[in-house]
Amino acid sequence: MPGRSASVELAGGRVRGRDGAYLGIPYATAQRFGAPRRATWSGELEAFAPGPPAPQPKRPISAFAHGVTPPGAEDCLTLNVWTPPEPGPWPVLVWAIGGGWTIGWAGSSIYDGAALARAANVVVVNFTYRLGSLGWVGGNWGLLDHVAVLEWVRENIAAFGGDASRVTLGGQSAGAANVADLLVCPAAEGLFGRAILHSPPLPEAANDPERSARWAADLWERVARDAPADEVVAAHEALLREDAWRGTRGAAWPTLDAATLPVSPLDAPDARPEIPVLVGTTRDEATFLFRAVERDPPVPDEVVRKVTAELFTEPTRRWAFQRAAAGGEVHLFRLDHPSHDPRLGALHTIDVPLLFGTFRTSDVARHYVHDDARTREVSEAMQTAWGRFLHGDDPGLATVPGIVYTSTP
Predict the structure, then answer these.
(1) Which positions fall inside the Carboxylesterase type B domain (predicted)?
(2) CA-CA distance, 93 to 392, in Å (whole number)?
(3) Closest CA to 304 of 282, 317, 314, 289
(4) Which one of the listed residues 62, 108, 173, 199 is annotated catalytic?
(5) With a cut of 70, which residues of the chain have pLDDT below it?
(6) Fewer Cβ atoms within 10 A, N terminus or C terminus of the chain?
(7) Which residue in the list 348, 362, 367, 379 is annotated as catalytic?
């Protein structure tokens, strides 16, 4: 095979990657409706391709958002690492992917971390975590997967030139809400020192336990708890078509729980104020929800704007200002750089290919934005600014084209 390969020794075993990319490394093993357990293997693991996605439905939005997704597997807890060309120690970005807690895959080309690792001189890590009812019914299993990744990073990242004392936890959409949850999660204490939140749907960051219990009861009336994963996924989707849940997301996402999520992050903006935060939204978030895939009848502009404001913009700004007022360092932005599709504008997730630079290489990323001069300018400026933040400096958001920067107290 072409490319330069190298192997590293980790706590779980030895892995071999290529050209600074180590893909599909098991960070834990998934126990159905249980906390993740340490992963080990014998011999040398060839880390040349991403691991499988979590079991998930084939929704119309999936192909637009993440591209063709391979068949899922319950033993899906793997991560990918990209390193800069020069030896470290470098800061580390651990990135939690989006997907509404139900779809998504860290192996999607939109999340390839190679360009960002080179541009910002950081070690980039992303990971697959459990989704849907298999990830969130009966416990915050998907959130504990995030904790397991951070513990893995603390133990292993030095082997890749990463500095375990300079870890930033970032994420987009549901992944960003998970970052907010981990700011209040007792088990995540001390595992990351900076946070990046892109488009967090904060009103949904902490589900009501009673609602979650109703969902679980209705689900188990349709399918056995030990049924094959694809049957659980199918039952999840069927339940969303029933009168009690039609038109909702259901109730399989992070839920208030004394041990893992004792309070909604909306109610605790001052949690761990020593952690600097870079947080923001896009100007036209909800066009992704209503126009990325055609709707019949079309959703009016006023509805799109209302969802953008109520689910993303307003709660994010309120949380950011409250956190700053409590003494936290907060850098607040709005991304206005638009898609090539005038119906979509600066849609939800457009920030991902801009930050990662994957619009140059990924057909999926080009669903959001084309490779043109203005896009390259915005992307390169974002990578520089976000890189400054990852290295512990002020990002200088006011200098980034396509970004509206808001000063917080």
Answers:
(1) 6-293
(2) 12
(3) 289
(4) 173
(5) 1-3
(6) N
(7) 348
Indicate if 285 belongs to the active site: yes
Does the reported pTM lie above 0.85? yes
Full residue range of the structural domain in which residue 313 is found: 5-207+253-406
Find the CATH number of the domain harbouring 195. 3.40.50.1820
Of all helices (H) and strands (E), which one includes residue 312? none
pLDDT of residue 407: 85
Specify the number of domains making up the chain. Answer: 1
Residue 217 falls inside a structural domain: no
Q: Which residue pairs from 151-157 have beta carbons closer than 8 angstroms and sit at least 24 positions apart in sequence?
A: 151/191, 152/11, 152/27, 152/28, 152/79, 153/92, 153/94, 153/125, 153/191, 154/191, 155/11, 156/10, 156/11, 156/12, 157/81, 157/92, 157/123, 157/125
Look at residue 243 and tell me if it is in a domain.
Answer: no
Residue 283, SS3 per DSSP: coil
**Residues in a beta bridge with 257:** 261
Q: Is residue 88 part of a domain?
A: yes
What is the model's pLDDT at position 2? 55
pLDDT in tens, 56-92: 999 999 999 999 999 999 999 999 999 999 988 999 9
173 is catalytic: yes
In a domain, 244, yes or no: no
Read off the tokens for 341: 């599709």
Among residues 285, 331, 337, 379, the one annotated as catalytic is 285
Q: How would you class 409 by CB atoms within 10 Å of its CB: exposed for 0-12, middle for 13-18, buried for 19 or more?
A: exposed
